[in-house]
Protein backbone atom coordinates (compact mmCIF):
# COMPACT_ATOMS: atom_id res chain seq x y z
CA UNK A 1 0.00 0.00 0.00
CA UNK A 2 1.35 3.36 -1.01
CA UNK A 3 1.41 6.10 1.61
CA UNK A 4 -0.61 8.63 -0.39
CA UNK A 5 -0.46 11.36 2.23
CA UNK A 6 3.33 11.22 2.19
CA UNK A 7 3.29 11.31 -1.60
CA UNK A 8 0.96 14.33 -1.57
CA UNK A 9 3.44 16.31 0.51
CA UNK A 10 6.20 15.62 -2.03
CA UNK A 11 4.24 16.83 -5.07
CA UNK A 12 4.49 20.59 -5.64
CA UNK A 13 1.29 22.60 -5.43
CA UNK A 14 -1.53 23.30 -2.97
CA UNK A 15 -2.05 20.44 -0.54
CA UNK A 16 -5.80 21.04 -0.18
CA UNK A 17 -6.40 20.40 -3.88
CA UNK A 18 -4.25 17.30 -3.89
CA UNK A 19 -5.91 15.99 -0.75
CA UNK A 20 -9.42 16.50 -2.17
CA UNK A 21 -8.49 14.70 -5.36
CA UNK A 22 -6.87 11.87 -3.38
CA UNK A 23 -10.01 11.45 -1.29
CA UNK A 24 -12.09 11.31 -4.48
CA UNK A 25 -9.77 8.64 -5.84
CA UNK A 26 -9.96 6.61 -2.61
CA UNK A 27 -13.74 6.81 -2.63
CA UNK A 28 -14.53 6.02 -6.28
CA UNK A 29 -11.23 5.51 -8.10
CA UNK A 30 -10.85 7.39 -11.41
CA UNK A 31 -14.43 8.64 -11.58
CA UNK A 32 -14.11 9.99 -8.03
CA UNK A 33 -10.76 11.56 -8.87
CA UNK A 34 -12.24 13.44 -11.83
CA UNK A 35 -15.40 14.44 -9.94
CA UNK A 36 -13.46 15.68 -6.92
CA UNK A 37 -11.03 17.58 -9.12
CA UNK A 38 -13.77 19.28 -11.10
CA UNK A 39 -15.88 20.08 -8.02
CA UNK A 40 -12.87 21.47 -6.15
CA UNK A 41 -11.28 23.50 -8.96
CA UNK A 42 -14.25 24.68 -11.06
CA UNK A 43 -15.84 27.05 -8.47
CA UNK A 44 -12.53 28.82 -7.88
CA UNK A 45 -11.90 29.07 -11.62
CA UNK A 46 -15.36 30.59 -12.16
CA UNK A 47 -14.84 33.10 -9.34
CA UNK A 48 -11.45 34.16 -10.72
CA UNK A 49 -12.95 34.47 -14.21
CA UNK A 50 -15.76 36.69 -12.88
CA UNK A 51 -13.28 38.86 -10.98
CA UNK A 52 -11.06 39.17 -14.06
CA UNK A 53 -14.06 40.23 -16.15
CA UNK A 54 -15.08 42.78 -13.49
CA UNK A 55 -11.54 44.14 -13.37
CA UNK A 56 -11.36 44.54 -17.14
CA UNK A 57 -14.83 46.08 -17.27
CA UNK A 58 -14.65 48.33 -14.17
CA UNK A 59 -10.90 48.62 -13.58
CA UNK A 60 -10.72 52.32 -14.44
CA UNK A 61 -13.62 53.44 -12.24
CA UNK A 62 -12.62 54.47 -8.68
CA UNK A 63 -16.13 53.88 -7.24
CA UNK A 64 -16.00 50.17 -8.04
CA UNK A 65 -12.48 49.96 -6.60
CA UNK A 66 -13.75 51.52 -3.40
CA UNK A 67 -16.60 48.99 -3.16
CA UNK A 68 -14.18 46.13 -3.75
CA UNK A 69 -11.75 47.43 -1.11
CA UNK A 70 -14.52 47.89 1.48
CA UNK A 71 -15.96 44.43 0.77
CA UNK A 72 -12.51 42.89 1.16
CA UNK A 73 -11.96 44.68 4.46
CA UNK A 74 -15.34 43.52 5.76
CA UNK A 75 -14.55 39.92 4.85
CA UNK A 76 -11.17 40.16 6.55
CA UNK A 77 -12.76 41.70 9.63
CA UNK A 78 -15.24 38.82 9.88
CA UNK A 79 -12.46 36.25 9.88
CA UNK A 80 -10.51 38.25 12.47
CA UNK A 81 -7.14 37.63 10.89
CA UNK A 82 -4.18 39.07 12.78
CA UNK A 83 -2.82 40.53 9.57
CA UNK A 84 -6.13 42.14 8.60
CA UNK A 85 -4.91 45.54 9.74
CA UNK A 86 -1.84 45.30 7.51
CA UNK A 87 -3.86 44.13 4.53
CA UNK A 88 -6.47 46.81 5.20
CA UNK A 89 -3.84 49.52 5.49
CA UNK A 90 -2.25 48.38 2.24
CA UNK A 91 -5.64 48.34 0.51
CA UNK A 92 -6.46 51.83 1.76
CA UNK A 93 -3.07 53.18 0.68
CA UNK A 94 -3.53 51.66 -2.76
CA UNK A 95 -7.04 53.05 -2.99
CA UNK A 96 -5.89 56.51 -1.91
CA UNK A 97 -3.14 56.48 -4.53
CA UNK A 98 -5.61 55.42 -7.21
CA UNK A 99 -8.08 58.15 -6.24
CA UNK A 100 -5.35 60.79 -6.10
CA UNK A 101 -4.04 59.75 -9.51
CA UNK A 102 -7.51 60.12 -11.05
CA UNK A 103 -8.15 63.50 -9.39
CA UNK A 104 -4.80 65.03 -10.32
Quick structural overview:
By secondary structure, the chain is an all-alpha fold. It has helices spanning 4-10, 15-58, 62-79, 84-103. It has two domains: 1-57, no CATH class; 59-104, no CATH class.
Average pLDDT, all residues: 76
Low-confidence stretches: none
Strand tally, please?
Answer: 0
Portion of residues in beta strands equals under 5%
Number of domains: 2
Gross geometry: elongated
Largest β sheet strand count, sense and barrel closure: none
* Number of helices in the DSSP assignment: 4
Oligomer designation: single chain
Q: What is the string of helix and strand elements?
A: HHHH
CA-based gyration radius: 20 Å
Which structural class best describes the helix and strand composition? mainly alpha
Residue share in helix = over 70%
N- to C-terminal separation?
66 Å
List key phrases describing it.
104 residues, mainly alpha, 2 domains, 4 helices, elongated
Describe the structure.
The chain is mainly α and 104 residues long. The longest helix has 44 residues, at 15-58. Helix 3 (62-79) runs antiparallel to helix 4. It folds into 2 domains: 1-57, no CATH class; 59-104, no CATH class. The protein contains 4 helices and no strands. Helices cover 86% and strands 0% of the residues.
Write the layout of secondary structure elements.
Layout: H1 4-10, H2 15-58, H3 62-79, H4 84-103
Amino acid sequence: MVNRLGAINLIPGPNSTKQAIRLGFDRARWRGLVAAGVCFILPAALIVTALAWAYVHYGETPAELLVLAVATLLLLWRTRLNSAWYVGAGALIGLARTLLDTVM
